Amino acid sequence: MPEETPRTSGPLRRIRRDGISYTLLGTAHVSRASAEDVHTLLASGDFDAVAIELCPARHQALVNPDVWGQTDLYQVFRQGRAAMMAASLALGAYQQRLAEQFNVRPGEEMRTAMEGALQRGLPVLLIDRDVGTTLRRVYRNVPWWQRLNILGGLLGSVLSREQVSEQEIERLKEGDLLETTFAEFADRNTVLYEPLIAERDQYMAARLCQEARRDGYKNVLAVIGAGHLKGIASHLETGNTCADADATVRRLEARPPASRWPKLIPWLIVAVILAGFGIGFSRSPDLGWAMIWDWLLINGVLSALGALIAAGHPATVLTAFLAAPWTSLNPMIGAGMVAGAVELYFRKPRVADFNNLRHDVTHWRGWWRNRVARTLLVFFLASLGSAVGTYVAGFLIYDRLIGG
Fold first, then answer.
1. Range 143-164 average pLDDT
2. Residues whose CB is less than 8 angstroms from the CB of residue 56 and which lie 6 or more positions away in sequence, other chains included
């Protein structure tokens, strides 16, 4: 490292490739010292661009805390983005809990980098992969039987009121919120480590090369989590990551194709249920009608129970009861979507609900108190009740056939 390079408390690497100097600053996302390191480096005036470990979505959330207020929840349900929104809220809740414990805003070094770049008229390069793409690749990379375990761990980590442990603090000094949230699983699961950490190292290295070459930057400061420094440096120094940066970015941005068989399962279940009704009526009208009532009551009651547990409006609970038996026979629309739409109609979120959303979801009671979060709960719990009802009623229907 040249002697004129300012001293920093965090790890620092300078790499020269293809006539471009990349200065990689490893930061801790809950450290004031990291923000001071960024300020020190920018004050040197050596750089013509600043790259930060953010994607456009996370950048928008950082600079515009009220971004959720611009969300159309009905469109979120229609477009199948409810799970992604809930995951983003969960990560935001964990971030807020850290802020309260450490009395510091996580990501302060990123804000310092953006503000310092703006003051000096330097461009800000967003080099991290879209958080939605990363979560989808994590989800697709994990065997289906492990997904519920990971989702449970995520919810447990963000809703817990326990103080962050010393072990987790050390992880935060090296990684980012995504990695820390999934750290329990990433440490022992190579299929999770690959999309969450290794792919992002390669992606960010490729984005650095891509941006620098395209706009002719010669001295780029990259503010990244310390845990990514070694991987990014390795990709910058060796391999084909920079030699074919465009192809690398396209490959790692691709969303993995969904498996076909999960899409076929709902239709197969519908076919089996309808076949059961047909067999029942062929044996006896009384048996057929008994099976119909089993289907209507079990599916409707469990979906309504889910909406009730979510503290949905009485009309929402009634709608879940009436809609679930029929939506379960049409995989194109779910009981949760219908119940969520009714909840939105009767209890439109207020401006205060959006403003307080990030803070409310840090505690489990806030998910019921905040209208935005409660609508998501209605969607998920009504859907879960209907799904459970489908299987319970289906087994009961075929039990009647076998017993009859």
1. 60
2. 126, 130
Q: What is the DSSP string of 210-241?
A: HHHHHHT-SEEEEEEEHHHHHHHHHHHHSSST
294 lies in the same domain as 383: yes
**Radius of gyration in angstroms for the set of CA atoms belonging to the chain, rounded to a whole number:** 25
Q: Between the CA atoms of 275, 263, 344 and 68, what dihedral angle is there, to the nearest 10 degrees?
A: 170
> Phi and psi of 47, rounded to 5°?
-110, 150
Q: What is the pLDDT of residue 314?
A: 95
116 neighbors 38 (Cβ within 8 angstroms): yes
Same domain, 234 and 339: no
DSSP 140-193: HHS-HHHHHHHHHHHHHHHH--SPPPHHHHHHHHHS-HHHHHTHHHHTT-HHHH
- Tabulate helix, strand, coil % of the chain (nearest 5): 70, 5, 25
Which residues, in sequence order, are CB contacts of 289 under 8 Å at separation 6+?
A: none
pLDDT at 1: 41
Q: 308-365: per-residue pLDDT in tens?
A: 999 999 999 999 999 999 998 887 788 888 998 899 889 888 767 776 776 777 777 8
**Domain-located, residue 352:** yes
